[in-house]
Input
Amino acid sequence: MIRVNQRDMDFREGMTVKNLLEDLKYSFPNLIVRINGEYIPRESYEKTVIKDNDDISIIHPIAGG
Amino acid sequence: MDTTDRKDSVAKIKEAHRLLKRYEYTPQKIQRGYTNKTLYINISDNTIKSKDVPEEIKDKFTGGKGLGLWYLWNSVTKDTKWDDPENEIIISPGPVGGITQYPGAGKSLVVSLSPTTGSVMDSNVGGHFGPLMKFSGWDALEIQGKAKEDIIIYIDGNKGIVEIYEVPIGPVNSHILAEEVTEFFAESEEEKRNISVISAGEAAEHTLFGVLNFSFYDRRKKVQRLKQAGRGGIGTVFRNKKIKAIAVKYNGVKGDSNNPADIDTIRKLGLKLHKEIKEHDKDQCRMREIGTAHLVEIMDDYDLLPVHNFKYGSHEEAYKIDSKVLAKKVVQGSPDGCWHGCSMSCAKAVQDYELKTGPYKGHKVVVDGPEYETVAGVGSNCGIFDPDYIIECNFYCDTYGIDTISFGTTMAFLMECYENNILNKEITGGIELNFGNKDAAMEVLHQMAKGTGFGKIAGLGVRRIKNLLIEKYGADPKFLNDIGMEVKGLEYSQYVSKESLAQQGGYALANKGPQHDEAWLIFMDMVNNQIPTFEDKAEALHYFPIFRTWFGLNGLCKLPWNDIEPPDNHLTDEPAKVPEHVENYVQLFNSVTGKNIDKEEMILQSERVYNFQRVFNLKMGFGTREHDIPPYRSMGPVTEEEYLSRQERYDKQLKELVGVNPEKMSTAEKIEALREYKYKQYDKLVDAVYKRRGWNKNGIPTVELMKKLGMDFPEVIKLIEEHSSE
Output
């Protein structure tokens, strides 16, 4: 189990940040991703592997419209 | 229309026009963003005069929408209706408006009593009119009265002349009228760039949601492009007053025309943002490439794109109208802003589009947009996934003077009524208004322009159509009130808010009605889960609407605030606020006006006007809790098909949030249980928001709050006291 934005999600062995964003259909171009508080730059999404019990925050920094 | 035809038509207008009044003035030199003068015109008796803008009023209302609200407040009584001569149209750009160094600084704010809501309406718009009017010597233009015949108002900012002409002949539709009015007043081809025209087309006469088109001359395409003050039917007020056009001509726009206190700081701020846009826009929102239409596929991915009258948030055919498709239709390759110096350049145009329907069938035209709201409104929300239809509909809505948002939401509502046999061919005059029927939607649009057939009903907007169908055709009021997407009489803009309680409030609590320009909190709430408690949501529903009000006080566009972000924005405490850009705005205001505000005072400037507008609603008979309630379609599934389309999600909500077991419940029972829960949640949210805003439980700002804000005008206090004792 992992936590994404304080909600439980199933963990899948080997899943990367890129996989997670695809699963969630998070296509907004300007995301702020942190795993256990550590900022993950966009160029590292593909190679960053998520571990079981990780606490992940994916912020869409937009409050506009 | 080719050039020869246009010159012939203009020649005929020149022959037929009659000067009703000329007023000469000495244009005021702008002092730190203000001319300190307002141009008042009463078109009933052709009074034209200059009014001072006192320091006290600038301190309380800043400018732009604030000035508009103040003038309107003093012109109408609680009994004034939108089509009374006392109602005004006020146009003001605000003190920062007109600078050319910082992106997004050419907005005009328009204020009037609305035909659709019956209360005060504000709408913001690009184009060159506001800045050119200010450089001509006027902080605001205040128009009152009603003309007997069609008139054109003309301001020549170099010569210091204001004229009113009676113009009994000639076109009304904006794509022709704007060109002809430009031709009429330009003394040379070169001069056309110095002219901006406001107009509204023939549908603005026959519907209640008419827009105002504000033009800016595109030197490359040699055409007047059109931007819209779209919400709430101010175009309908304009035509009801028999105003055909308002034109301003000013030659000599320079970087320092606004005469700011500190131009060097403005330049530095602008350069920093230009660099940000240049380097990062292509990886962020692609505003330079496709403008707001980049949102189509994003909203579809997040189940937020309205489909079939907001029943659903995505559709398998959405890819047919997404930004990749639209990018191939619009003219590419050069900056395309609606005011000088805007490197965000989100304005887009389809060039040489050959019209397939209507009175201009076969004509090749320039079509501005389409914006996200238009794509979603006239497209997906009506179940129409045809980009050419969207472009054609966009063109006709603009030239006829119809708000694409209200048109889309109204048409989607009508289609759902048709599919539920509430409407039938007998009522529609044979038009089959099923979802996806683009020919039918287009036919109704052309009828709206002429004020004929079913177009007369469609042009009333959702609230009045609901009442008509209930009273005349015996429709079920509960169902219609559930699916009719309006609050306060204004149609919803194009986001599905079912899964975001904060956005349900963002829409339904908005002063003028459900327009997203007060608060767009869906990502913060539904996706990021950053505002989980009622207090968190209330804080967001306090800060963001108040903050965003500030753009409208200053003639600024919201887009450069957060549709481009500094690369290190993620390191800040509150990235959703984009703190660096907020600081830019504080410095920008200070650099123009020479004042010394900080970000707290910036919020106070907005809070004054925001609460004044709430009390203005109260004055007009609204502005209390009963007017802040959303239709259930904006909160949850109304119909069984809607519930079943996302059954897993809703069953989970019943289990985890409502605390009931859905397994033994019928779909109808599940819908009812969810509905009861969601309205209770909404009630709690409203309590929290009112408390945070300093309002009483009925949504009325308290006397203490208005005193604290310095907005304790005697009439305001009397009004609050009268209503608070009820």
Remarks:
- Residues 3-249 of chain B form a domain with the Aldehyde Ferredoxin Oxidoreductase;  A, domain 1 fold (CATH 3.60.9.10).
- The longest strand of chain B covers residues 18-24.
- The mean pLDDT of chain B is 96.
